[in-house]
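User: I'm writing a tutorial on reading structure tokens. Could you give me a worked example: one chain, its sequence, then its tokens, then a sentence or two explaining what the tokens reveal?
Assistant: Sure. Here is the example chain.
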Amino acid sequence: MVINYTLKNYQLRETTRGKGIIKYLLVDEQGKKRIVSAIANLGFGNKVKSIHPIHHRETPLIDVLAKAEINEKITVDFTEYNNKYPRGSSVEARKIEAVRTDKIKDPYEDSLISDFESIPKHKFRLLKLLLASVLAVIAMLFVINGFFSGE
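And here are its predicted structure tokens:
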């Protein structure tokens, strides 16, 4: 897959000493804008020493952008890279595919009172809530009584 872009602008922001984020503003042949970010290793005077992609699939694009000038038309050939690293081949993609969602249990499901039969299961939590409410009402009565008594 070959894609043509025009590099319209870029912005470098230092995040920590010796590291930064560089954002490239690209426009493709159809006029669609795209922002691509990369991690930059900075040298003396915040000069860029090296640039590394955040997403491994953008490696060919970042390699070309590192050498490009503003308003330069660039051509990126992803064919060889896509053959070597097909979509979903990353470790993260394999981990996501391996997760069985049918075995995942919602942690908040146990804390919900869904019907009258589930109330005994939550009796201690309900008693604590009732006790806190009663204490709050008593405290408010003391404040109101002290406020209106004129002391």
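What the tokens reveal: Helices lie at 59-65, 79-84, 91-98, 123-148. Strands lie at 2-16, 19-28, 33-42, 48-53, 73-77.
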